[in-house]
């Protein structure tokens, strides 16, 4: 179940917690974050390739690419025995921004986006079927957890992919991480 925790950015121990999808969508929409529920019911074989995953969701991907002008797409797939899970997790645990929107459609598993905006931290637990769009320039960090398990389709406007620009703010170290 998708979940939103809203913290004052100076009170990491005190959050308001929401699980009602419509409320989460409205709350995030009020600060410019796109959050939608999409169908993620295509059967995927264990070990499905990027091409097979994209083919399974081709209609949804094509619609979003046309609607938003995305020019490239790929798949990120993480499993608990991924040999670089610690390195990849740590890479995005520090607050950063991108020069293009960060759009992810979770077709399996979960991940925690923490968005720092307007004096608050919006911790969004994205689950299968969730689509999140974090606008360019928005400080955030992503936690895949110590035992990551997710498949997300990523869409880009820049065909060279996105680059993280770290803010140097250590705020992420003060907020709860995604548990195992």
How does the overall form come out from the CA principal axes? globular
Binned, the helix content reads 10-25%
- How many helices? The count is 4
Cα radius of gyration in angstroms: 16 Å
Following the backbone from N to C, one meets helices and strands in this order, namely: EEHEHHEHEEEEEEE
Largest sheet: 9 strands, antiparallel
Q: Report the sheet-strand fraction.
A: 35-45%
Which residues sit in consecutive blocks of at least 5 with pLDDT less than 50?
A: none
**Total beta strands:** 11
Alpha-carbon distance between the termini? 16 Å
| Mean of all residue-level pLDDT scores | 93
Structural class: alpha+beta
Textual characterization of the structure:
With 180 residues, the protein is α+β, with helices and mostly antiparallel strands. The protein has helices at residues 21-29, 50-56, 58-68, 85-91, and strands spanning 3-8, 15-18, 34-37, 72-78, 96-97, 102-117, 120-127, 130-134, 140-143, 150-156, 165-166. It has 4 helices and 11 strands. Strands 1, 2, 3, 4, 6, 7, 8, 9 and 10 form a 9-stranded antiparallel β-sheet that branches. The protein has a two-stranded antiparallel ribbon with strand order 5-11. Strand 6 and strand 7 form a beta hairpin. The protein is globular and about 45 Å long. The model has no long low-confidence stretch (mean pLDDT 93).
């Amino acid at each position: 179940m998708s979940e939103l925790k809203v913290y004052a950015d100076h009170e990491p121990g005190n959050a308001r917690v929401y699980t009602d999808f419509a409320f989460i969508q409205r709350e995030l929409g009020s600060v410019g974050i796109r959050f939608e529920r999409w169908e993620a019911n295509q059967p995927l074989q264990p070990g499905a390739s990027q091409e097979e995953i994209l083919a399974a969701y081709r209609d949804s991907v094509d619609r979003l690419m046309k609607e938003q002008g995305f020019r490239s797409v790929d798949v990120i797939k993480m499993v608990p025995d991924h040999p670089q899970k610690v390195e990849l997790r740590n890479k995005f645990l520090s607050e950063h921004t991108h020069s293009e929107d960060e759009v992810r459609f979770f077709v399996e598993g979960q991940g925690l986006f923490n968005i720092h905006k307007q004096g608050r931290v919006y911790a969004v637990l994205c689950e299968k079927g969730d689509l999140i769009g974090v606008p360019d320039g928005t400080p955030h960090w992503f936690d895949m957890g110590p035992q990551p398990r997710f498949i997300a389709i990523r869409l880009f406007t820049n065909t060279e992919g996105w680059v993280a620009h770290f803010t140097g703010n250590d705020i992420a170290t003060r907020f709860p991480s995604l548990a195992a």
